[in-house]
Amino acid sequence: MKVPPEIQRRVAELREEINTHNYYYYVLAEPRIPDAEFDRLMRELQALERQYPQLVTPDSPTQRVGAAPVEAFGTVRHEIPMLSLENAFSEADVRDFHRRVCERLSVNHVDYAAEPKLDGLAVSLRYEDGVLVQGATRGDGYTGEDITRNVRTIHTIPLRLRGRAYPRVLEVRGEVYMPLSGFRALNRTQVEQGEKPFVNPRNAAAGSLRQLDPRITAQRPLSIFCYGVGVVEGFRLPGRHYEVLLQLREWGLRIPEHLEVVRDAEGCLAYYRAMASRRDALDYEIDGVVYKVDRLALQARLGHVARAPRWAVAHKFPAQEELTRVLDIDVQVGRTGALTPVARLEPVFVGGVTVTNATLHNEDEIRRKDVRVGDTVIVRRAGDVIPEVVAVVKERRPPGTRPFHMPKRCPACGSEVVRAEGEAIARCSGGLFCPAQRKEAIKHFASRRAMDIEGLGDKLVDQLVEKGLVKDVADLYELDEATLAGLERMGEKSAANLKAAIEKSKHTTLARFLYALGIREVGEATAQTLAGHFGTLEKLMSADEAALQAVPDVGPVVAAHILAFFRQRHNRDVIRRLRRLGVHWEEAASLPREDLPLAGKTFVLTGTLSSMTRDEAKARLQALGARVSGSVSRRTDCVVAGADPGSKYDKARELGVEIIDESRFLALLARHGQA
Ligand code: 5U1
């Protein structure tokens, strides 16, 4: 079919426009049109190319989708070898490098182009007459693999150079990498699909780029920074490296961010420090910075040795990953009872510090990585993040190792360890007794919405626990005034006040008491519901799973936590002591639902209450037998209106339904023992 000239023109126009927007988006990171508009242009071009297949060219922006798989990669000889870099590990190394450069050139000062050093894979891209014709890995520097089909899927690599004035042949060198955000998302997907996650972004980038099936590469979030050139024919490049990179950017290639020209060794070192402090904020991993003599004429005079140029050096950051051995696996109990396995390691210098422990996160992580005592592991410490074991080097596993299992009993107090269904974290169930949880448990117990012990703040709890005066919450009721007065920042008057507050807290409600126990997943609202439902502590403590799950809002997870809590002898002992020491509440015999004071009544909540959340209000009403509905109808008995009520308020007025404000609502709760 003959292609009408206006179609040819439109196709050329669309390609130009799409390439330009790709450039704004990927190279300059300044998109100029919304994604939807870009998609529309792309769809129009795709439709025209479908209609006139003879118009499809390899550099068309539609031609990025992965091509068919290959059996093996072909080889590519690098006409100009892809050199590697000498490393500098200290300031002294950098000064030595600069001194050598000055001596060889017989100069006193040198300008360097300074760039971040990406931790990815070096590649070479070849453009002929502006069209991408080849992509190759570095290989041994002289011969690499032909990965043309794969690099074509990377959106930040232009299939055609921008503008008209470009070399007949241009080889661009750069680093393909995986952004950290993309790496994290990819690993989430890997785990969800039951695949092994990648150990680090570099491995993920390498694995993605060296795929025989480019369709897989196309799905991976790869990108590139271009930092140099190889063969250049038919074009006079500018005289400085920095200007060469700016020229590459003009042609649509992505060049490193944070490029600078600096002077002498001191300029280099200041750049290094600036990049080191920026490192954690970048969306890609860098393992150091590179300094290159900026003037190309000087580079040529310096030449190279073996495989590395004399005019450049990589100043490395301390490694973020190292190998070491697992000496033991301990289990730590956190302040809230969470059990975390921790690997004790042969000391290793990583990420700038000596690391002896690394978190193993949780049981599933250990199982997935299969970390065992005796294993050689990769330890990672990036930025301020706590060190972690990334992977096991299975080839180095000694004979006789055994898989790790989480303990069944808490290493701090011996209580049962519970791991609720669907949760990754295993927890100690001895909340009232466990020394690891002591401070938190006491602070929660004394808090305003729990036992409301006025004056017993966090600092005092810390002192009481640290001095060994309080081991569990029952000990609070055995403190005498003299002991309290002996604490730091406590006078006789405040000790007397605190003692009085402790005494006062003895008179409470079952709901508050239940909440104060700190049972996992039992917040204020659930405590209210449980108190209303069971009426007495004894009934709740003897409830089985079915009885617990019959309570509104109590599902299998909450039921499991309640059962585990009351199963612990230590917890029961503390509760018994509390009651013996005088903690009490009005015992309401559990009423059948139909006998509850608000049974058969329908309430609707609207607006914001200042004294409780909507969930709490709902739970309290339900504990009194009311039904709480989301909308107002003729069958609604009462609407509770907080501040800024919504349309439900208007509807209630329209239908003549009773409306009460917060103070009347609180009075209603108080009348029925739910204050
Ligand atoms: N940023 C940057 N990385 N990097 C790696 N520049 C750079 N230059 C390199 C290498 C291997 O080599 C040239 C200096 C030859």
Task: Write a structural description.
With 675 residues, the protein is an alpha+beta fold. The strands form seven sheets. Strands 14, 15, 16, 17, 18, 19 and 20 form a seven-stranded antiparallel beta sheet that branches. Strands 2-13-10-3-9 form a five-stranded mixed beta sheet. Bound molecules: ligand 5U1. Ligand 5U1 is lined by residues 83-85, 115, 117, 122, 175, 227-228, 256, 290, 292, 309, 312.
List keywords for this structure.
alpha+beta, 5-stranded mixed β-sheet, 675 residues, binds ligand 5U1
Rg, alpha carbons: 35 Å
**What ligand molecules are bound, each kind once?**
ligand 5U1
The coarse silhouette is elongated
Bin the strand percentage: 15-25%
- Main pleated sheet: 7 strands, antiparallel
Number of helices: 24
What helical percentage do the residues reach?
A: 25-40%
Structural class: alpha+beta
Distance between the termini: 83 Å
Mean pLDDT: 92
Task: Report the count of strand segments.
Answer: 26
Q: Uncertain runs with pLDDT below 50, 5 residues or more? A: none
Helix/strand layout:
Blueprint: H1 5-27, H2 35-51, E1 75-77, E2 87-88, H3 91-105, E3 111-118, E4 121-128, E5 131-137, E6 143-145, H4 148-151, E7 169-177, H5 180-192, H6 201-209, H7 214-218, E8 223-233, H8 241-250, E9 260-263, H9 264-278, E10 286-293, H10 296-302, E11 304-305, E12 308-309, E13 312-316, E14 321-333, E15 338-350, E16 353-359, H11 363-369, E17 376-380, E18 388-392, E19 417-418, E20 426-428, H12 438-446, H13 458-466, H14 481-485, H15 492-505, E21 507-508, H16 510-516, H17 524-534, H18 537-541, H19 545-549, H20 556-567, H21 569-580, E22 584-585, E23 602-606, H22 614-623, E24 627-629, E25 638-641, H23 647-655, E26 658-660, H24 662-671
Residues 83-85, 115, 117, 122, 175, 227-228, 256, 290, 292, 309, 312 line the site of ligand 5U1.
